[in-house]
Amino acid sequence: MFQTLEARTANDLWKQAAEWFRQDDKSVRQASRNGPTQEVMNVALSLQYPRQRWIAARVPAMNPAFAIAEVVWIVSGRNDSAMLNYFNAVLPRYAGEGTTYHGAYGHRIRSSFGVDQLERAYHALSAKSDSRQVVLQIWDSRIDLPSENGSEASKDVPCNVCSLLKVRDGKLEWTQIMRSNDLFRGFPHNVIQFSSLQEILAGWLKVEVGAYHHYSDSLHLYDQDGDVASHFEDISSPDNEDTLSLVKSESDAAFLMLGQLCDFCANTERSSDEVFNHVSNLHLPAGHANLARVLAADALRRRNAFGQAQEVMQQCTNPCLRFMTQRWFSKPR
């Protein structure tokens, strides 16, 4: 039986899904390779307004700079680990050590199968908007299936399997299929990653953003992370008022600059003044400029340049990103 939820914002979706883990008749005990979990199977979540993708209710607060860096990394088709690890030093604990990540979503989508699937989707839907054949494949059975003795192929086997894209009534509808989804660590980032891709592609296609549908075959919470009450605060962020929808040439140029900024920030030989000046001299569309400010502000925080970090965020015109960044900066350390 499907377990379904629909909400205007990802924050509301997350809060409603979290309530399932307080109900004995919803979640069940389930063993896993990383320890015991509470699990709800066959979950279908619908986000009515994908731009409202930021989840403020999670405790501890999520790092918006890392989430943005992931989006840039995916859009750029990268699989290198160094840049992401800079924004999230504990990531190798979950995804494995090494210079690349086995399950990198952007690399899978944009080059791993010998075709840039995002580019192909753009051309296919531009030519035939009513197509039902546009699927972005992430899972690769050749390298992702467990061995015959059940041992895992990698610490970083993709949780996302594929994306189903359809244009209906002038809107890009997006369905994300997941084999496995951690309510606490995974879902808040996954919804940002793929609803951002949805918004970006909608801009390329010059259509509106439709609903974002998220199917998880196993939505779970690890016992080691504590009960859901310890991860929940009944708050919401202001609305996200920015757009990432640009025509393709402008979008490509903006994400190229954001990728360069990520690498600049991750280079620890760069001083705080250099990071501050770099982001101050970028010329980006408003929504992308605000993403850049969040990235740079976190890089400045990591360099203990707290005054410069706050000065950069004062230039951010998106109240949602200001709220999320302030929550992250205020997290006890």
Automatic annotation (TrEMBL):
<dbReference type="InterPro" id="IPR036926">
    <property type="entry name" value="Thymidate_synth/dCMP_Mease_sf"/>
</dbReference>
<keyword id="KW-0808">Transferase</keyword>
<dbReference type="GO" id="GO:0006231">
    <property type="term" value="P:dTMP biosynthetic process"/>
</dbReference>
<dbReference type="Pfam" id="PF00303">
    <property type="entry name" value="Thymidylat_synt"/>
</dbReference>
<dbReference type="GO" id="GO:0032259">
    <property type="term" value="P:methylation"/>
</dbReference>
<dbReference type="GO" id="GO:0005829">
    <property type="term" value="C:cytosol"/>
</dbReference>
<dbReference type="InterPro" id="IPR023451">
    <property type="entry name" value="Thymidate_synth/dCMP_Mease_dom"/>
</dbReference>
<dbReference type="GO" id="GO:0004799">
    <property type="term" value="F:thymidylate synthase activity"/>
</dbReference>
<feature type="domain" description="Thymidylate synthase/dCMP hydroxymethylase">
    <location>
        <begin position="63"/>
        <end position="227"/>
    </location>
</feature>
<dbReference type="InterPro" id="IPR045097">
    <property type="entry name" value="Thymidate_synth/dCMP_Mease"/>
</dbReference>
<keyword id="KW-0489">Methyltransferase</keyword>
<protein>
    <submittedName>
        <fullName>Thymidylate synthase</fullName>
    </submittedName>
</protein>
